[in-house]
Design brief:
Layout: E1 3-8, E2 33-37, E3 39-41, E4 47-49, E5 52-59, E6 73-80, E7 83-90, E8 93-99, E9 104-110, E10 130-134, E11 137-142, E12 145-154, E13 157-162, E14 178-179, E15 188-190, E16 198-202, E17 227-230, E18 233-242, E19 245-250, E20 255-257, E21 264-266, E22 272-276, E23 287-291, E24 306-315, E25 318-322, E26 331-333, E27 338-340, E28 348-351, E29 362-366, E30 369-373, E31 381-384, E32 404-407, E33 416-421, E34 425-429, E35 433-436, E36 452-455, E37 465-467, E38 470-474, E39 481-487, E40 492-497, E41 509-516, E42 524-530, E43 535-541, E44 546-552, E45 558-567, E46 570-580, E47 586-596, E48 602-607, E49 614-616, E50 626-632, E51 640-649, E52 658-661, E53 671-676, E54 680-684, E55 690-691, E56 694-695, E57 701-713, E58 716-718, E59 721-723, E60 729-736, E61 740-741, E62 747-750, E63 757-766
Antiparallel strand pairs: 1-63, 2-54, 3-4, 4-63, 5-47, 6-7, 7-8, 8-9, 10-11, 11-12, 12-13, 14-28, 15-16, 16-19, 17-18, 17-28, 18-19, 20-27, 21-22, 21-26, 22-25, 23-24, 23-27, 24-25, 29-30, 30-31, 31-32, 33-34, 34-35, 35-36, 37-38, 38-39, 39-40, 41-42, 42-43, 43-44, 45-46, 46-47, 48-53, 49-52, ...
Amino acid sequence: MQRFRVPFHSFQFGEVSESMLMRLDTPVYESSAQRIENMTLRAEGGVRRRFGTKKLYSFTDIARDSSKTMQSRLTEFIFSDDERYIVSVEDLQLRVFQVTATGVTLVSTITQDTDTNALPFSEDYLNQYTTSQYGDVMLICHPLFAPRILLRTSLTTFEVQVFSFDKRADDNIIYQPYSVFHAANVTLNPSAATGTGITIVTSADYFDTTGSLTGSDYLSSLHVGVVLRYGDTEITITSVQSATSATGNVTDELRLRLQILNPLRTIESSTAVEVTHIDHGFSGGETITLEEASATGGVSAANLNGSRTVGNIIDDNTYTITAGASATDSADGGGYVKVVTHAPTTQWAEQSFSAKRGYPAAVVFHENRLIFGGTVDQPDAIWMSKSGQFFNFDTGTAADADSIQISIATGDVNEIRYLVSNRDLQVFTASSELYVPSYLNQVITPTNVQFKQQTPFGCTFVNPESLDGATLFFQAGGKVLREYLYTDGENAYSSVAVSTIASHLISSPIDMAVVHGAFEEAESYCAIVMSDGDIALFGSNRAEKRAGWTRLSQGGDLHGFQSVVAIDDRLFVSMWEHYTDGTGAVTETLHLCEFNADYYVDCSVQAAPNASDIVALSGLFEAGESVYALGYTTGSTVPTYIGVFSVTESGSNPSVTTEVVVTDSYGVYDTVEVGKFFSVALTTNPIDATLRSGGQTGDPRGVSAAVLDLIDTDHVVVGGYAYNPATTFSGKKEFKLLGYGRDPQVPVTQTKPLPLQINGIIAELVV
């Protein structure tokens, strides 16, 4: 018989999957465990009981629907250092909570926008919304409805507006993006340059006549209400007669900006001026109006601009006009010339965002631009506002500050799902990951913008988050978490899987958030909510080459976590509470809670007991529920476990609806904490030793003892043996264990909600 000391000096790699349990050859094995539940990784390598959750708000008006992925989607709204908010997007409404030092305060419940229209949010796809915030404005986007603006109007007031583009000062021209949905040779022919009810005819089938209008916020197959851009002016479609004919209203006089710069050519000693006008469609003798032409060949601007008569038709792209004076020189010029006309032209387009074409799926603020990405009809397109003008998408003359419109065009159609502002503009699609580089520290401009495709994994519908210099995203299918990271050595981005060692913890992710310095740690953590209600907690410190996983779960009447949001170093979560009373009636309530260092149970509240040992709960729990109670004395941060109690209907205090009688608490404890118990468990990897004959995995062997290095621990159970010190204990504690097995392990649990921290474990193996 041989005895070996097998150490687990740390648990810095967290919980690992069963596929890792034969990897004794790696440092991961001796610094991980097969199960770490409801514990967080310490910066030094140990683990500690996770914080309890403080109950902040109950969504009593939301009835649980198990068929929905989530019914409240939480996101942050950060206005300033001391003005932080949580936004809960729900079915047909949203709520805004102001974050305070002690919790949250509900400041706004919004069901309509400022036009008194019902909010279009649906719980059917809450996890598909994308948001981005700048200052007091937050954009909320989804392909099925026009973008919404959540606007902060004061410290405690918010409103929702339908996103609208800037207009020209005379309120005629809308600075919105336009796209070409027709073949290049299809012309648009308006019946007049101005007016309402004009006829619009296309040279090929274009207008849809088969659908029905279902509302301004939802997709329809009709063109009614859609805006067409004719040159530089809009026509709003009012009705559709056929696939090639519609009627509409002209916003202003129809004018075409000629497609080339300096389209005029003067002839010395002649009043005839040649005009290059692609597919002009004119006949000799027609009257047109030139605008914004500059002096050319000695002819002044005044003698070029204004009403002119078309002279000779040279070809489909060239004609002559008569200037008001003869040229002194033969020259090309004119600048950016515009022509007022209603001739047939190929220079027309349709608004990019509409109920017909869909709305942006992704949104982000980046390099002083508002950027949209992906619609139903243009899933791989990106639109960028003018620099510093977030509501102006006029492409202008392609100056550096002008708006940008570009498609990915990588061969297959890459459906854009998320845009992330990080080192570069990062683009996550259904099939690949790309970025838009900024060259030589220069900002993105219309002349240098381009996409660079990097990796081929694709992104599922879970919002990417930035952590430790990388962007975390879930690979298409939702089974693998990857980090998108730029490396100077490769001069490119890589997408490395970080969930490989704990792949069993990843099961249908629905939400995630990154919290910095959480749980009183120096590291940052990514909290990922799974559809089964668990949270997979990923901690990373790239500088120290440490990364690991633990799982956070709930027990008893709690049905799991649903959504998560981080505000600075605070982590907030929504969770369902399920309760069946003595009559069999079921109550399910959604709560907004905070992971809090001063709390040891879930969905918990703290209050002072009265002289009858009664703790008033003010309807925070249902009558008949079982709750765990802990007591605090003045100045003490370590609670005393009191016991399990039953919630009753209030009889002593008419201002509350429920209460709990916590025996012998009055006069003993200044504060009593009441909430739901959650289990804590750590099970080491199978204890093994390498002999000359090799590893002993699978051979009968036993663990005779285990030494735990503990800090500030009040209660711990090791292999069925409980240790309950009179006060919190710090130091090494030995537990005598018996029994043989083929893969012996050291199981650690906690049956009372009290402090627990394990720095490491040394097991004595008997072979």
